[in-house]
Amino acid sequence: MTKQNVVMQEEPAVAVAAAAPTRAVSGGANHARYRKFLSRPDLSSGGGGGKAGSWIESMKASSPTHVKSAAARAVSSFASHGEQDYDGWMKLHPSALDDFEVLAAASKGKQIVMFLDYDGTLSPIVDDPDRAFMSDEVSSSDPLALLPLVSVLSLVPLFLLWNGGTKELLLLKQMREAVREVARHFPTAIVSGRCTEKVTSFVELSELYYAGSHGMDIKGPNDGPQHLKAKAENVLFQPARDFLPMIDEVYKRLVETTKCIPGSMVENNKFCLSVHFRCVDEKKWCLLAEKVRSTITDYPKLRLTHGRKVLEIRPIIKWDKGKALEFLLESLGYDGHNDVFPLYIGDDRTDEDAFKVLQDRGQGFGILVSTIAKETNASFSLREPAEVLKFLRRIVEWKQISMEECRV
Ligand SMILES: O=P(O)(O)OC[C@H]1O[C@H](O[C@H]2O[C@H](CO)[C@@H](O)[C@H](O)[C@H]2O)[C@H](O)[C@@H](O)[C@@H]1O
């Protein structure tokens, strides 16, 4: 754990209304068939315009506004009745740990491909985005940060006595090792809103695929098994390359216009931007929304979405985590194969695009990380990163046992 607050759970994100269509945008695509995704603007959830008031509603949103499905009914009922209805929601999205056997049986004889979101999935949500490490470890590039850790460590024995949940703490420390083990057994990709460089530096595993900037920057592994390396040579896709100068310009403008709002932070994720308001006084949210809105109004080729206490600004191309998942499956040679079983674990609204792709393909499963009932396209759930860790370990263990059984 880092020394900052770990956020246990919060509201689902809500995307804002659409803006006027823009001209088609061509990417730096080295994969011709993916150009089709770039020739249409994505009008589903964005636009540079809109009213700051509606943004505020989205920023404050604590439950979905359109109640349609059984899951949504469970969600709304949860809002009024509490924990009891979480149980109802869990019947629709059972725990991937409790129902592990069901999930394992469905994947029998198929190639599992693992997709993992980063923030809120592999790393607990914390106040400072630059310190969202994957485990309790402190980055080796930040030696000063070790000082408080040393004092905290001396309290660990006391904490162990005091807290019956010590297993959780120890499990979190093991996340990197667990992901490494998963990648030894299955092709594995990290799919994140962060830029690929940053998420790679947090995860520090060169054998993985990385799809940063919400899937707009896809890289293959640097090492790992030879058969994966060969396939990975094809994997390098940056559909929003043409937007780099615009993103840089908007980044500078946003840093300038928001610097008067204490606690706000603009993060440059290379092909997209994040404006964080987790540490901004709620009374200032309206001002922040207005400043962001008035800046991106000048850029009709950019759109806005919401994440967990973050406004996300990205190119208005039809590309998201779901498209990145499809791209990676194809690059790995699994397109059109019935014997592939993708698993996608994520906690945020942007992960829903990937869950939806799996649902539509009827292949594999989405697993939502959440401690509250949410409307989701995922089939299963896990409560928090500590449970993700348990799940990753379990699937490796299961694979090892299956391999043993095949040998005898
Ligand atoms: O797709 P993800 O890997 O989940 O990235 C989504 C955003 O995650 C980060 O922000 C979130 O986590 C921060 C650290 O825990 C937290 O402080 C912030 O409030 C969350 O929104 C990241 O900083 C963003 O750039 C990503 O877009």
From TrEMBL:
Its EC number is 3.1.3.12. It comes from Musa balbisiana. GO terms for molecular function: trehalose-phosphatase activity. Keywords: Hydrolase, Membrane, Transmembrane, Transmembrane helix. CDD domains: HAD_TPP. Removes the phosphate from trehalose 6-phosphate to produce free trehalose. Its cofactor is a divalent metal cation. It is an enzyme of class 3 (hydrolase). NCBIfam families: HAD-SF-IIB (TIGR01484), T6PP (TIGR00685). The chain crosses the membrane at residues 144-165. It catalyses: alpha,alpha-trehalose 6-phosphate + H2O = alpha,alpha-trehalose + phosphate. The keyword Hydrolase applies. This is Trehalose 6-phosphate phosphatase. Pathway: Glycan biosynthesis; trehalose biosynthesis. Belongs to the trehalose phosphatase family. The keyword RNA-binding does not apply. GO terms for biological process: trehalose biosynthetic process. It comes from the Eukaryota.
